[in-house]
Amino acid sequence: RSRQDVLTCTPWGSPIVWEGTFDPEILRQEYGRRNLTIGLTVFAVGRYLEKYLEQFLETAEEHFMVGWRVIYYVFTDRPGAVPRLGLAPGRQLQTRMVENQKRWQDISMMRMHWLSQALDTAICREVQYVFCMDVDQFFVGAFGLEALAESVTLLHSYFYRWTRSYVPYDRNPRSAAFLGPGEGDFYYHAAVFGGLCPRVKNLTESCFQAVLQDKRQGVEARWQEESHLNKYFWQHKPAKILSPEYCWDQAIRRRGDIRVARLVWAEKQYRRLRQAA
Ligand code: GAL
User: Fold this and answer.
1) Among 8, 34, 66, 169, which is most exposed with the fewest C-beta within 10 angstroms?
2) How is residue 147 annotated by DSSP?
């Protein structure tokens, strides 16, 4: 109720997190009693490693779940090239080897498979909550406990004010990601999602199965795994939604509703970075 200018609750009763809707001190006391470790997965494959990883990790140290135990899981084709950073006490970094793919679309979609596999075993034993993020972004403000919930997704900064008929859902009935007229809730950006480990495992596994189904049909969803994630969260309502503060594109003129930015898009350079390795 502290924010009248934005939607702070979904029709199914999940909170939408905006600056001014939570009290970090109350959250700190509440979670302080629990033995909490939070995972943060990120993919740095091919040229994305040199271009983005260091800044992503350095700024995460400054702003992501500061004061809490965090394990960074870096998935990469070149573990030896991962920058060695001094991490705050209680925070550690692990690398996981993955194979580069010829097409960036396949790297993007395979992430769901790699995550689902990794969550099956080690990660779920080490952390309670896990966030999965794109690497081509960096933190500029606090990203803290207010973002935790059983399942968490993010409003896309370009589409959060649009009605669902105009957002870029997959509209091909042959794709498993298809959403028809009247379907879908919001448009979610796959650059950030998370939640309790078993829930994220379920999401990543379901999205990957949907990707495979599309491959068998010879189709590819409009925004690859993001389209499947949108379908998934329409069918399995998220427990919490992060406002676009949590992944803002600074190229968009800020309206009064965006009072802070916490994570921002880095310069994309798709053409150069996505050329086959
Ligand atoms: C772009 C973004 C893509 C995808 C797309 C959806 O701005 O870079 O990752 O989310 O929007 O239209």
Assistant:
1) 34
2) G
77 labelled ligand-binding: no
- What is the C-alpha to C-alpha distance for residues 265 and 1, in angstroms, rounded to an integer? 29
256 CA → ligand 1 middle, Å: 23
Residue identifier of the C-alpha nearest atom 7 of ligand 1: 158
Confidence band, pLDDT 50/70/90 cuts, at residue 46:
very high
Average pLDDT, the chain: 96
What's the gap in Å between 36 CA and the centre of ligand 1? 32
Say how many residues make up the chain: 277
For the stretch 28-44, pLDDT in tens is 999 988 889 999 999 99
Model pLDDT for residues 231-254, shown as the tens digit of each residue? 999 999 999 999 999 999 999 999
Torsion of CA 15, 21, 24, 29, to 10 degrees: -60
* Pocket lined around ligand 1, Cβ cut-off 6 Å: 156, 158, 168, 189, 223, 226
Can 99 be counted among the known catalytic residues? no
